Amino acid sequence: MSGPRQGRGGAKGRNGPVLTGVFGDPVEHSLSPAMHNAAFRSLGLPFLYLKFRVPVSSLRAALRGVRILGFRGVNLTIPLKEAALGLMDKLTPQAERVGAVNTVTIEGGRFEGHNTDGEGFLRSLRETWRFRPRGKRVMLLGAGGAARAVAFALGGAGAREIVIVNRTPGRARSLARAVARATRASVTAARLWRGTPWERILEGADLIVNATSVGMKRGETPVPPSVVRPPIRVVDLVYSPPTTKLVGAVSRRGVRAMNGEGMLVHQGALAFERWTGMPAPVRIMRRAFRSAMAGAEKGGMRAHFGGPRACVTFARPIEFKSRRV
Ligand code: NAP
After folding, report:
1. Which of 262, 256, 254 has the alpha carbon at shortest distance from 237?
2. Ligand 1: which residues within 6 Å by Cβ?
3. How many domains does the chain have?
């Protein structure tokens, strides 16, 4: 990485900050502004990250808008990640494979669509446990957007076997076929929700990844914690609440387990690196994320963000609506 890239507007301070942000609907809950603005501030970069509520029907117009305004890039969250595919000038191989864009870079007026979720997940495994998927057997719960990113990343990183379990078996089967075609991993879909004994499915597994939304409500768990025993490790991609029932219960049984914070921080760090051309200050991003999360948990989903110097609290994102798309 060579050094900070300047926005279209040029050098620091001349034309205001270099703009970045997140589009989503809803987007109120996003803690990404806290994470990115803390990172920009810590490195003295004249960048600013904002959040915008953009419905799918306005995505094309919103992208055109940020191009005209000279944004360096944006993150996309639900429900825009898939809708953006057809609006990019170029897709990275990861975005193309996963079928979703979570980060857009804008260079010379052209949109490049990236997907940093899978690499963010791998980085979090390496950082926390020095865990490398090569040769490992992984049980993946879920077949939605997060599961797709994780499955392709694990397959690409040399996992020996991936077993996908999903409430809707057809989605697990189609994801298994796609990952098996694209990587060397042996990928199968298992029907767990219909009563197959967990113990049999988990035999020989090195890692369980929960990529379902089960666990977001307190007290629910996608796997009975009593069947999870060391040396299996558990990653629950849910990060709110920070300690899901699954992570809490298996940790007490001596199983190494973490939530989705690492993946979230690292996918953000990778976006930061694409936009700025500089290594991301991961520790600062994590600290900012945790503090925003603690604030959000306490009351009201308010994200704290500010420019290079200021720190402003916004209760609501900027609304973006358009009739013509
Ligand atoms: P998604 O595309 O909507 O997929 C949801 C998945 O959860 C599907 O596999 C769905 O099964 C399953 N599911 C939902 N309700 C269920 C239930 N009651 N019982 C069993 N399965 C159920 O969502 P996503 O974007 O993949 O997100 C999934 C989770 O990952 C969310 O909790 C999200 O917060 C988390 N996530 C974390 C990160 C991170 O960086 N840490 C990034 C992305 C997502 P069906 O196919 O049967 O509907």
Report:
1. 262
2. 117, 142-147, 166-168, 171, 211-214, 216, 237-239, 260, 263-264, 267
3. 2
Q: What is the pLDDT of residues 83-99, one digit of tens each?
A: 999 999 999 999 999 99
| Closest C-alpha to 18, from 50, 42, 64 | 50
Nearest CA to ligand 1 atom 14: 213
**Threshold 0.85, pTM exceeds:** yes
Q: 247 is in which domain, residue-wise?
A: 118-260
Let me know whether 135 and 162 are in one domain. Answer: yes
- Greater confidence (6 vs 296) lies with 296
Q: What is the pLDDT of residue 82?
A: 97
Is there a single domain that holds both residue 301 and residue 236? no
Atom number of ligand 1 nearest to Cα 168: 47
HEC string of 126-172 equals HHHHCCCCCCCEEEEECCCHHHHHHHHHHHHCCCCEEEEECCCHHHH
CATH of residue 252: 3.40.50.720
Q: What is the pLDDT of residues 33-73, one digit of tens each?
A: 999 999 999 999 999 999 999 999 999 999 999 999 999 99
Structure confidence by residue, pLDDT tens digits, 112-147: 999 999 999 999 999 999 999 999 999 999 999 999
Task: Give me the active site residues, please.
Answer: 81
- Same domain assignment for residues 276 and 177: no
Q: Are residues 223 and 283 in the same domain?
A: no
Cα separation, 132 vs 206, in Å, equals: 11
Q: Considering the domain boundaries, does residue 1 fall inside one?
A: no
